[in-house]
Amino acid sequence: MRISAKGDYAVRAAAELAASQDGRPVRAETLARQQQVPHRFLEAILSDLRREGIVVSRRGAGGGYVLARPADRITVADVVRAVEGPLVFVRDARPSDLEYTGAAASLQHVWVALRVNVRAVLEQVTLADLAAGTLPASVLALTGDDAAWQNP
């Protein structure tokens, strides 16, 4: 699994919207500045998020973007899927749609298990969690081992 800049920027912008406690729309320029992301790229990302029902846009002088539903009902998985598509793809296919033979016959189970574990993390963390800086204990536990921070 690889999270592109687009996915990363989308989650960061959505977290900023979740942290905006007053409920007033936030301009794309403001979100871009707060997260130090390219404004034009963020505009395209926000368009994807709007199309997928994660954010709504408001026009006018006080316009900008707000979350389409409460932050505790939007997961990181929702945001990533909105801009990236399915969380785990293998050769542009869903793991459950693949077939392998011979010595690689069990590989499909590995890819499906990977998808299950990615979902277990990303579907558990909400934008409210990110905005509050309080991640679920099960997610934090995964980062508690020093080896989690190392690339083999």
Supply the key terms:
mainly alpha, Rrf2 family transcriptional regulator, DNA binding, 152 residues, 48% helix, globular, Tscrpt_reg_Rrf2, two-stranded antiparallel ribbon, 7 helices, DNA-binding, Arc Repressor Mutant, subunit A, single chain, WH_DNA-bd_sf
Please, what is the CATH homologous superfamily?
Winged helix-like DNA-binding domain superfamily/Winged helix DNA-binding domain
Helix content class: 40-55%
Mean pLDDT: 92
Question: Overall 3D geometry?
Answer: globular
Which sequence of SSEs, written as H and E, runs from N to C?
A: HHHEEHHHH
Architecture blueprint of SSEs:
Elements lengths: L4 H15 L8 H8 L3 H13 L3 E4 L5 E4 L8 H9 L22 H16 L4 H6 L4 H6 L10
Antiparallel strand pairs: 1-2
Helix pairs in contact: 1-2, 1-3, 1-4, 2-3
